[in-house]
Amino acid sequence: MKVAVAGCCHGALDKMYETLELLQRRHNVRPDLLLCCGDFQAVRNEADLCCMAVPAKYRHMQTFYRYYSGEKKAPVLTVFIGGNHEASNHLQELPYGGWVAPNIYYLGYAGVVRFRGVRIAGISGIFKSHDYRKGHFECPPYNQQTIRSAYHVRNIEVFKLKQLKHPIDIFMSHDWPRSIYHYGNKKQLLKMKSFFRQEVESNTLGSPAASELLQHLKPTYWFSAHLHVKFAAFMQHQTNSKEELPKATKFLALDKCLPHRDFLQIIDVEHDPNASDSLEYDAEWIAVLKATNSLVNVTQTSWNMPENNGLHAKWDYSATEEAIKEVLEELNHNLKIPCNFTLTAACYDPSKPQKKVEPVHTINPQTTEFCAQFGLTDINDRIQQAKEEGSVRGEREEEEEEEEMDSTGSAEEPSEYNTDNSGLSSINPDEIMLDEEGGDEDLSTCSVDPSPDHPPDFSASFSDIRIMPDSMAVSSDDAMDSTNEELEKSGVSKQVEEKSLNERPLKRVGGNENGNSGIKIKRRNQAIYAAEDEDKTE
């Protein structure tokens, strides 16, 4: 089947779907599935805008609300993960995943689903060492700290994914796995993004947690976004035994959704022709969720996941074949995800814009139904309870839960990632330094730049749509200088490309050239976001 993969969407759904229509007209190719690697920005209204960690000048309503209200419907099944510029209050309603609009599915903090027999997994957010070992304690209304920590990856999600034993076909993360740049054309990457050099040479660019998952899961494909640059790599994994067949991962990072930018890729993925055309639950993942349910933590207390180090009574939470069978029997072998999308917030009305809004913490019926069906803890309900008990800010909910955590995870143990030199605490990829952008900003006040009622036709100005039959293709300017032989052996073919005459190079901005001396943005972000000002997006 044909799978379209997109980078950072930034709420520009109309542009993205128009590009798919253009693909069909020009190449007679219609994708069966669209994957988006974060910064989706499922913004429903002004309150959602206030929960998005970006400077005020980037708070634009964009077009998602049209799909949320039912005015429009996604023309292709869309599955996405969260990034670091999201309406966190909206996505938080669906910690285990769910529909944010008809035909648009969010994978949750971490998740695994199936489509036509293809197993798709992903993890939302970006890595920050100082929040990695905390629980999901944040809830709206956010403050200047929690509006950012809400989208930081947590160790429990990585732990859950590491319990998977069956092969993964496609994995999505927002930030790149650390070290992946050593398996592609690093020279070309640094030519396009010279400000990455220091982090690449010190091996601090990317997420160590994602790197751990890459080495553990060894998926066939791994897709990322975040750095707003296209990059391909091919990683041959080491085998643990002579009997184990060698595995390799084809990695691709996508650019952001903008005219004149290469943000969309088409790949052919082997699928089961007898499998359902509906999006389905993954039985092993459900079994893992049930097994790890006792590890749910909604406090700021840092603690490590169970491991075989003599300190834990149990450390293996992987699903047995019996547990998987039980899940199948519970569902009567019907794994289809119910189309139970429900409106949980008022939709943006261009004729009645709201200036002063107060985000609220919402319990989504989809999550309630999911948790009831599989006997799981509703994280948002637990946070609400903890708030009422006055224990959500760093204390255990009950003495019994504290004793349970002592038997499974300990806050006294050292983290598996050194929090002092993670390399990401000060130079996290593509994250705007909100601390220096007005820490006293009122998050309940949003200046909305509404989308036009008749958005322009972008079909003539979008850059090429890359079509890669059979397997992931790498263009000549992305060909790996050190792994050409491996790529040829893996069947990588040349991309079909139509160059846009209007394509412009990425503008480099330094110092105060961004036109606002009152806002300080990291050097990397100055270059990344320069093109956004030019194209009037985000």
Q: What structural class do the secondary elements suggest? A: alpha/beta
Helix tally equals: 16
* pLDDT averaged over residues: 80
Low-pLDDT segments, ≥5 res: 404-415, 418-440, 451-538
The percent range for strand residues is 5-15%
The main sheet comes to: 7 strands, mixed
* Helix proportion range: 10-25%
N- to C-terminal distance:
31 Å
Give the overall shape, derived from the CA principal axes. globular
Cα radius of gyration in angstroms: 22 Å
- Give the count of structural domains: 1
Order of helices and strands: EHEHHEHEEEEHHEHHHEEEEEHHHHHEHH
- Strand order, sheet with most strands: 4-5-3-2-1-12-14
Oligomeric composition of the shown chains: single chain
Number of strands: 14
Protein name: DBR1 enzyme
GO molecular function: metal ion binding; RNA lariat debranching enzyme activity
Domain Lariat debranching enzyme C-terminal: 235-380
GO cellular component, one term: nucleus
Note down, in words, how this protein is organized.
One of its GO terms (molecular function) is RNA lariat debranching enzyme activity. Residues 386-538 are annotated as: Disordered. This protein is α/β, with parallel strands linked by helices and 538 residues long. The chain is 25% helix and 12% strand. It has one domain (2-385). Strand 6 and strand 7 (118-123) form a beta hairpin. Helix 6 runs parallel beside helix 9 and helix 10 (283-291) crosses helix 11 (321-330). The protein is globular, with a radius of gyration of 22 Å.
